[in-house]
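User: I'm putting together notes for a lab meeting next week and I want to include a structural view of one of the chains we've been expressing. I don't have a solved structure, so I'd like a prediction I can at least talk through. The sequence is below, exactly as it appears in our construct file.
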Amino acid sequence: MMGGITLMAGQSQTVRQITVPTAYAGTLSSLGVAVSDFCGVYARTKDSAAGAQVDTPAWQAPSEGGLYKSTFAAEFLRRKVEKEGVAWAISGYAAGSTTIAYFAPGAEGDVRLRAVLDHIKAFEEFYWHQGGDDAGDGTTYAAYKTALTQVFSDAASQNQRGTNFKKAVTTMATRTSAGRGTTAQVQAIRTAGLDWSSENGAVYAEPHDIDLVDSVHQGQAGNIVLAHHVFRVFNGNDNGPTLGAGTRSGNTITIPVTLPAGATALAITGNPGSRFHVFPAGTTANAVAVSAVAYDEGEQAMKLTLAAAPANDVALDVYFCRHPDPSQSAYGSMIRDDRMEDGLPVGRNLEPATVNGVAAVAAPGGEEPAEPAPEPLPVGARILLNTYHSQRNASEPSFFAGSAAAGWNSLNARANNSASARLPLTSSDGVATPVKAHAEYSTGRGGSTTLTGSVVPNDVLQTNMFISRTAAASYAASTSARVRITDLPAGTQWKVDVLASAQGTGVRNQTIAIGSDTRVVDVMNNTGISATFDGVTPDSGEIAVAFTQVDAEQFAYLTAVILTRVG
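Assistant: Thanks for the context. Below is the predicted structure for the 567-residue chain, given as structure tokens.
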């Protein structure tokens, strides 16, 4: 009988937390890893490496010749037993070279994980370690977050403890390979894991001091260090000191460090200079070499010495632990705090301020600056968007020019998803913004040609984009379209007013939706706001306004979108 179970799922890194290929050097005994008398493993793995596949799981303690040979299992379970004072087990399913879609409800990975859950019935902790193949395949930030919700919800539905379990996510630990996914793709998956964790009560762990046997997988020595991280994740925390925004004087960068509660200092081991990457701001080209790294205890700041001082008008971006990691013997070259109250041999690792690891360093400048440029989208700023996506006719080549619709952005022909087709938007007072927009899947444009007296200028009201379904007289098959507003600043909130209008007689119902918030509205001869969405937070910098027919309607319309920043 077990007092508690840690469920694990993921790809090949998780496989090696359960068992290891026959070729791996280092045994439990040779690495000084003791096995508790009060632990066990019941897990299944799928992997192409010889000796790393467990087809028929059985309850066993970790051992050299058994099913579960990984030092992770032995080291993690020994510490869990000592910490919790009860017998503890690892269970789960992992498969090499898989994306998160492999674990979607009903997919192969989900079916195999459910088979294990049917056996163990319940678990107290769930550790997800996966993401490398998703980075290589270009899985988006939003798609990965959605899939994480599915994975954890499905596991909870099979847990007799329900949702009463601890959650932890690692989307990629130490990874020296740049072969699967660009740095941006890797960071998109890592950011998705970090943001999902913060939104769903999970702990995000991204350890960067794991010894590897290749450019991706931890070996037996690395498994011990990874076990220490996961043990800390579930028993207290694994969060270390964080970096803030830096300053520069000559060739010295000073970056403030925030120490967590209980820490009094930083310890530098090995050569952590290779952990920092410095580039001119906004680019990852023309790297600036770092010649030395030190911690100033008095200032509580990291001091980076550059090999040469950039010009005074050059701002810099400093990355800490930027993918790909600089070496696969990272255990010694690291910056840590001095908290070792849990009996582990080292403190918690220094962390970047964000998962991207950027600390902004302003240009020193030769003189005091002029006032900073105003923010293009302060609270209260408005963006006015007319959805009309084609010129009404050839005789009106400058539609909107000098009309009552001044201050409005017109989509004109911006009706596809290519970056080059996205329309840069100005605010209502004519200030350029970073925001862009385009329409998707529109089948026509037209207008409520004689309606007037609207909350928007007549020129806006009297044009629209629409979708039509014509497959049968009953119009049984709905179609849908949307306008996507992209590149909205992170952390902002918006009020979104949507106007849809058609001209004619009777009732014409349709939906207007942002995400899962859907409204049904009658748009016939409408001159006012059809729907207002308050407190909308952009998902990955995007707000999408969708519309579709309801019942047996043939058409659906979208006329105008007004965004007002509220936070």
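A couple of points you could mention at the meeting. Residues 242-325+349-361 form a domain with the Immunoglobulin-like fold (CATH 2.60.40.1130). The longest helix spans residues 141-157.

User: Perfect, that's what I needed.
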